[in-house]
Amino acid sequence: MTTMNPAAARIEEIRTNSLRGSALSADGGSAISLAIGEPSFATPECVVEAQAQALAEGMTHYAVQTGAPDLVKAILAHAVPPSSPLCDTRNVLVTHGGTAGLSSTILGLIDPGDVVLIENPTYSLYADAIRLAGGTIRGFGRRPDGGLDLGEIRKLAVSAKMIILCQPSNPMGTVVGAEEWQELSEIAGACDLLVLSDEAYDGIVFDGCEFVSALAVPGLADRLIVSRTFSKKYAMTGWRVGYLVGTAELVAAASTAHRTFNGAVNTANQYAAIAALERAAGEAEAMRREFQERRALMVSCLRDKGPVDFSVPSGAFYLWVKYPEHFGPSQTVAAKCLASGVRVRPGSEFGTGGTYRLRLSFAPDRESIVEGCRRFLSVFET
Ligand SMILES: Cc1ncc(COP(=O)(O)O)c(C=O)c1O
Fold it and tell me: What is the pLDDT of residues 86-101, one digit of tens each?
């Protein structure tokens, strides 16, 4: 019998203690998945064609470690607001999707014992990466009116090194408003706090809600790093391309970690990403509109139909559903859902704020949403 190498065992222990992915074991393939954050759409054709062309033209060699210069230029032109001082090539790093951008930022900047503030609940990758880096997690919540609890953040910020914001939020669908950004930037400046803004769902907002990127907040520019990905907005989850934009110093730190774990990103896929930025805005907008329709469909399938409650999300593509506590913790209820033929995400994966919550994705097609919601509600009939 082989014993596990101590280094691998340490990572395994973090993964085992992690909040991610635990209740969703194999189901034999028959379950409908409302669990995964993946658009059902094919990648826009112009993106696929750009990759094929890049390969045909011989772009099969290593790319520059920090990103193909043409993609870096396109990111600066299309994704960074003209008013932002973060407009130099040294402010950009192309990453292996959002996951590597976030992990590299955390591993490149957080030392053992550093305190990092994350929302409770939030995307669970942050907690795993902070633990790997040896950092300490402190959670903050929201006020009863739904706004960020800036008073709590202010208190915690005094002893923290970094705050991570996910907006539009996975799992809650909330967005950070301009006034909240303004106050956050004052707190960050006063407490010398680094700000990591995860904008994986940038622009996926509904009903005319304004998406304010951290890049558009003048007071943050000297302490900011923003993580984005092509995965969600352009239906490119399998392509594994994302990017960071931040101060040259923070980007250089993240780049050191990224180079160590990942190396340069797939060259041809970087040319596909240029096509996404330059030519796929129409397709991205059509997908956003369809997500809005699917949100309405899921809301109509669940509203007043069972003992569940939720707020209608302003962005991303998830419904964050609360159910009566007597049904048991979210891991138990997610397992019951799976037994009834629908996969959902247990809320506990996102923090203690999700103990009696489940996350349902409306990124799948309409048929899956309708049948998935029917199976979901059946769990609460017993
Ligand atoms: C908030 C958030 N950030 C980052 C990611 C990771 O994105 P990628 O698939 O590009 O690694 C996800 C994926 O679900 C996410 O929800």
Answer: 999 999 999 999 999 9
Which atom in ligand 1 lies closest to the alpha carbon of residue 242? 10
Type of residue numbered 188: A
The CB of 99 under 6 Å from ligand 1? The reply is yes
Q: What is the largest CA-CA distance in the chain?
A: 61
pLDDT of residue 8: 72
Mean pLDDT of 261-277: 97
Find the 313 Cα to ligand 1 centroid distance in Å. Answer: 18
pLDDT of 106 reads 98
Our answer on whether the CB atom of 169 is closer than 6 Å to any ligand 1 atom is no
Distance 98 CA to ligand 1 centre (A): 5
> What would the 3-class secondary structure string for 212-265 be?
CCHHHCHHHCCCEEEEEECCCCCCCCCCCCEEEEECHHHHHHHHHHHHHHCCCC
pLDDT value for 22: 44
Identify the CATH class of 21-42+282-378: alpha beta
Helical ranges in 110-236 per DSSP H: 125-133, 150-157, 178-191
CA of 350 to the centre of ligand 1 (A): 13
Q: Is the dihedral of CA 317, 323, 329, 331 positive or negative?
A: negative
Mean pLDDT of 199-223: 96
Q: Is there a contact between 206 and 291 (Cβ–Cβ < 8 Å)?
A: yes
Q: Do the Cβ atoms of 139 and 92 come closer than 8 Å?
A: no
Q: What is the CATH number that goes with domain 45-279?
A: 3.40.640.10
